[in-house]
Amino acid sequence: MSQTSPKAPARLVIASRESALAMWQAEHIRDRLRALYPQTEVSILGMTTQGDQILDKTLSKIGGKGLFVKELEAALLEERADIAVHSMKDVPSELPPEFAIAAVLARADAHDVLVAARARALGELPQGARVGTSSLRRQAQLLAARPDLRIEPLRGNVDTRLRRLDAGELDAVVLAGAGLERLGLAARIGARLDFATSLPAVGQGVIGIECRQADTRTGALLEPLEHAATRVALEAERAFARRLGGSCQSPIAAHARLEADRLSLEGLVAEPDGSRLYRDRDSDAPAAAAALGARLAQRVLATGAGALLERLRDG
After folding, report:
1. Which of 72, 126, 133, 237 has its CA 20 to 30 Å from the CA of residue 207?
2. Residue 312: its pLDDT value, please?
3. Matching fold, domains 11-105+206-226 and 236-314
4. Domain residue spans in the chain?
């Protein structure tokens, strides 16, 4: 789309959480849009979501990751904002029909990373080390690799989590590598956990831009930001989670990669204590991304993950 396109509006408002990482993402999108449409005033509406406010409980006990997006979606519906910027790992796999993910940016590093005071690898942590994470997915995989670890609940923004580590309350924390890199904190990374050790969350490392489904003009303005290979991988991962009925209560992981003309997907469902991992992989043509995700999920369900997920939902 031309920079002088008459379709570009006079003003665009971006809804964003107010954490440092969320604001970095929103500012990145703002700057990209300003470069594309210099005649458009692009501003950010900072918001504090329920997920940001309730820090003394795990996400699984207060409604899941959707708490990070509901207020932003309300701002879209009320037309206080035109778009909302999200980490796609925070966006539920079932999107309300009023909304669309109009564009996804090229994926950053999808790995989980270990940040520790005195260790550069998971195997270097001392016996019984205290490891902080808010994620049941990470907890399950960490315990599968190191059953001796003591997993400590850890909520809050990146700075809050690192402060608890630096204060000596924890021996290590596990975070998303992309977030640390975006905040200029890559030097804190002790080790990137390979996918065999810690398969990432669905959508990890992907920034998505949401708008109202009916707002086709804004959707068209976002087209230049779309990264096709990331979209295909994301479709497979989200279809996997959707078929599982996955939520924050469910330790679910998935990662897809597009190589040449083949899309490969690895998926996992785990017991929260790490005692059992249901894991499989498959591949297909990129055009079959959603079907690939659903098919792999069905296979994982059939091996025993279905009973596990039912038990976790009932509990």
Report:
1. 133
2. 86
3. no
4. 11-105+206-226, 112-192, 236-314
Quote the tokens at residue 276. Answer: 């059992």
In CATH, which of 3.30.160.40, 3.40.47.10, 3.40.225.10, 3.40.640.10 is domain 236-314? 3.30.160.40
CA atoms of 108 and 69, how far apart (whole Å)? 21
Identity (one letter) of the amino acid at 170? L
Does the domain made of 11-105+206-226 have the CATH classification 1.10.260.40?
no
C-beta separation of 43 from 14 below 8 A: yes
pTM over cut 0.70: yes
Mean pLDDT by 10 residues, the chain (315 residues): 63 95 97 97 88 48 62 95 96 94 98 94 96 94 98 90 95 97 96 97 97 96 97 98 76 95 97 96 98 98 93 79
What is the rounded CA–CA span in Å between residue 72 and residue 65?
A: 13
Active site annotation includes 56: no
At 223 the pLDDT is: 97
Between CA 282 and CA 297 the distance in angstroms is 10
Distance CA(173)–CA(115), nearest Å, equals 5
Nearest Cα neighbor of 170 from 112, 119, 110 is 119
Residues 104, 119: Cα–Cα separation, whole Å: 35
State the amino acid at position 141 in one-letter form: Q
- DSSP per-residue codes, 131-169: EE-S-HHHHHHHHHH-TT-EEE---S-HHHHHHHHHTTS
pLDDT given for residue 313 in this prediction: 82
Q: What per-residue confidence (pLDDT) applies to 58?
A: 46
Distance in angstroms (rounded) separating the CA atoms of residues 94 and 96? 7
Region for 154 from its dihedrals, namely left if φ exceeds 0, alpha if ψ lies in -120 to 50, beta otherwise: beta
Do 17 and 68 contact (CB within 8 A), yes or no? yes
Query: Looking at 52, 56, 82, 90, which residue is catalytic?
Result: 90
* Rounded alpha-carbon distances, angstroms, from residue 205 to 87, 90, 113, 220: 7, 11, 12, 24
